[in-house]
Specification:
0% strand; elongated
């Protein structure tokens, strides 16, 4: 039988079940041989035969699985807090958002002077004289809320 890549792929004799299907069921889905046997209407001995065949031909079967992979895993860059703060500019700051009245024990309308009088005079504005965000002021204020 030929796979999606056009290459010949091993199948379990007397079925159209590909060896790599059983391998994926075990490795990626975490199914036990007993579960695989039940799901594919096989005896557990036949499932174990597939695993023995895979053990002897794992490089070829793994290459076949990789060749037929349709979805590529997405990798995302991880940003540090400092990198994110440096990207803040007046044109990408949104206005305040009203989320309605408090329904629990939320703290609302908390000013800097209520949280830390020592930094109230410094952090009343995160904008520098040139209307850009001052990262050190922003981070010093933000980190207070994380502690």
């Amino acid at each position: 039988m030929r796979g999606a890549s056009g290459e010949l792929v091993p199948v379990l004799r007397g079925t159209r079940l590909r060896v790599q299907t059983v391998v994926i069921a075990a490795q990626k889905w975490g199914l036990s041989p007993n579960q695989i046997a039940a799901d594919y209407d096989l005896s557990e001995d036949r499932v174990n035969d597939v695993f023995a065949f895979y053990a002897a031909h794992s490089q070829e079967i793994d290459a076949s699985i990789a060749a037929e992979q349709i979805i590529e895993p997405v990798t995302r860059r991880r940003y540090s807090l400092e990198e994110l703060v440096e990207a803040i500019a007046p044109e990408n700051i949104h206005n305040e958002i009203d989320s309605g009245v408090a329904v629990g024990n939320e703290v609302t309308n908390l000013s800097c002077s209520e949280t830390s009088p020592a930094i109230a005079h410094e952090s009343t504005s995160f904008l520098g004289t040139d209307s850009t965000i001052n990262p050190s002021l922003f981070l010093s204020h933000f980190k207070l809320f994380l502690i």
